[in-house]
């Protein structure tokens, strides 16, 4: 049986843990910061083994699921990959840092392992990766969320989310590298798009707060020699966290199943 570890027991981590369990796919351990062990057991309703670092393992897991955010990718990915542990992440935005990206690539080679980026809240990445085999002219992503979806983000410093001057307002316009760094909890999808296509600096990003909607709307426009594509999804957030996408959590489960099919 494959030994699977998970990092994170927030809204996404709990969803992934619970839904894999329903399908008889069992996570065998959790990695968390010191002092968070009891909170993790309470949230996950489980007595699974808990570690604070990969060094503490007597027998390494085969696979680690990163459901915790940028810091977990930074803290654990290179160490895991060097030791031959495959690593699935939703924290692609951290890879906007070229030093980390290059370090991870070297770790994959050293450990003969793989960093897998779950598709997260967006679709049509298959079109993007296929189009990359020839010339892509432009990639534009627009993300719209209701005001509560931007609480705790940089948007609060730019706009009064409770008193918008119009029904929708742009609070960021730039490229995927800037968006990934400025919105680490809200714009991982922009990094996933950039890594699948023409890169962080060429991928155009617009982020909007819209009080006329209740769902998170993601729009991806691609144009190239293949033609053009316009993909839009109206995604529902996880019930207990408006900043987390249900589809992002589902995409992590999908990646786990793909790997299990190979064993």
Quick summary of this structure?
The protein has helices spanning 11-22, 37-44, 70-82, 98-111, 125-131, 155-158, 176-182, 188-196, 246-261, and strands at 4-7, 29-31, 49-51, 63-66, 86-89, 115-117, 136-145, 168-175, 204-210, 216-224, 227-235, 237-238, 241-245.
Arithmetic mean of pLDDT: 94
Q: What would the CATH topology of the largest domain be?
A: Dihydrodipicolinate Reductase, domain 2
Shape: globular
Q: How many domains would you count in the coordinates?
A: 2
The whole-angstrom Rg is 19 Å
DSSP, total strands: 13
Structural class: alpha/beta
Q: How many alpha or pi helices? A: 9
CATH superfamily of the largest domain: Dihydrodipicolinate Reductase, domain 2
Order of helices and strands: EHEHEEHEHEHEHEHHEEEEEH
Low-confidence stretches: none
CATH class category label of the largest domain: Alpha Beta
Question: Strand-residue fraction?
Answer: 25-35%
What is the level-2 CATH architecture name of the largest domain? 2-Layer Sandwich
Distance between the termini: 9 Å
The major pleated sheet works out as:
6 strands, parallel
Please state how the strands of the largest beta sheet are arranged side by side: 3-2-1-4-5-6
| Percentage of residues assigned to helices | 25-40%
